[in-house]
Amino acid sequence: MIEPVALQDFFITFFSAALIILSGAGYAGLYAWAKLRGNPRLLLWAYACYAVLAGATFLLARATHLNGQWQVLVGLMLTGYLLVPLGIWKLCVASHGDENPPSPFL
Amino acid sequence: MNSIVTALPGKIASVFTRLDSPYLNGGQQLAVKYFSVATVLFFAQLLFGLLAAIQFVAPGFLFGWLDFSVNRMVHINAMVVWLLYGFIGSVYWFLEEESGTEIAGLKLGNIAFYVLTGAVTIVVLVYLLIQTGPGKDSTIWFINEGREYIEAPRWADFGIVAVMLVFFYNVAGTFMKGRWSGISGVLTLDLIALAGLYCAGMFYLTNITADQFWWWWVIHLWVEATWEVLVGCIMAWSLMHLIGARRKIVQTWLYIEVALMFGSGILGLGHHYFWIGTPDYWFSIGGFFSALEPIPLVAMVVHSVYDAGVHQFKSRNHPALAWIIAHTFGNFLGAGVWGFMHTLPQINLYTHGTQWSASHGHLAFFGAYATINIAFFYMAVQKWRGNVWMGGELPGNGWKWKWAMALLNIGVLGMTVALLIAGYEQSFIERAVEGSTWSGYFSAQNHPWFQQAMHWRLLFGLITIAGLVLLIWDLMTIGKGETRPALQLSEA
User: Fold this and answer.
1) How large is the ipTM?
2) Which of A22, A94, B24, B396 could link B28 by a cystine bridge, Cβ 3.0 to 4.6 Å?
């Protein structure tokens, strides 16, 4: 059912798993920042982060022997991390849409 | 002697009555009582954690007097209980303001507080006074139920459920009497789940797999589902009162958070079912939903950047806002990064039950839950003092809260990294190289990396305690003598 990680792949497993989450946050943060500033260069950096995420996912998949049905997990992870920041950004704009930001402080 | 015993409840009550403040409503007076006991238990958590940490580097320390197993148990139980006290206190704090009416059954709520505090005191005393003995049916009822993290004996379990029912009555009754809102609806439903799930840890089964199966319902589904949602409700209310966030927005995001948290967190339970004798399909379910669990945390990053860019971080309570920011980082790193690093079964086979889990647990509990409670303590103390100024330009440039925050965060992060190194070494030597044998266990325990990591953990534990002492000092003194009023929020 599962094939455990090989001894020599321990570090790469921990490192790539941490990198997936960190680069996922980097992609999400830079994407939001790029949208906020209207800066296409930041958007490029965001996609660079996503490329790191994709690379790390590939490394993790190889180290943890994610074959067969586990590849669905890899695909969903990559799709989820690609689309969620876009969706959340749209929700942010929509939910704050009618906000005319006067200071809430008297 | 008899007169002392009879007078004791009155004397205890008078200690708590001294905490009353004319600036607070009834629910807030009760909340302050919960917060004060939470702070004492927070200190107890760190004290017993420190003793356990010393025993890692000097195993003979207090041997036969206060064994490691007892220290560890009290350390973790104190943490669970102080966090719950903090959450309950926070809910009582905003109950009247959120519902627009007085609390239903407040007197009962006050009695429940004394009953719960009395029960907690007795349970801890029994843990400390009866550390060893025969394991009989009566042991489960009166001494220790033997379930990790929820060791409270069964009489206390029933007491806890009774107190939770009173708490639920206070909350639901008050909203039914006053007005409902998105926050109150989510909160009330979450409390049903919170109380109901506790019952899953109250019965004993002779089949260890079946027993563990239900036990994880309490541990996982509390921490990675119902507690997250409860904290979401507390956070939603806090943001409205701290930075003037609009109700419509925080409620919308609360619904989104509930969907994401429950969507990934409920079946994320599967990552605890890898090695307890449950069927193989839990590998796939646990692995898949564990990979989804960090997505809500990544989503929060987008919203944080949006808010930071669109709004200025102007707040009426700087220490509270700083702790909320610490919460977002701590939750992301502790639960997201540290969790996912060792959650897939292919690697969890080696890391399960090593110091990896302790490393993840230290950062995740502190980051996700301790921080939000501390933020609320600062909000409470501000009003307790008469709604005084707690923005910038505090006396001494607010050095106490800033140093307390720095020491606590550095201390916990340092312990997390030290335990991570120890866990890595254990996974490698004990599990992978020596195949989880008895001799492998001792090889790993005596390895220099493990030993050095335990010394570093002790050092950072001391830094954490120094931070807590400073935090308590700050909470007792901040705003004292302050004459400037707090920033006033306009009606949203």
Assistant:
1) 0.85
2) B24
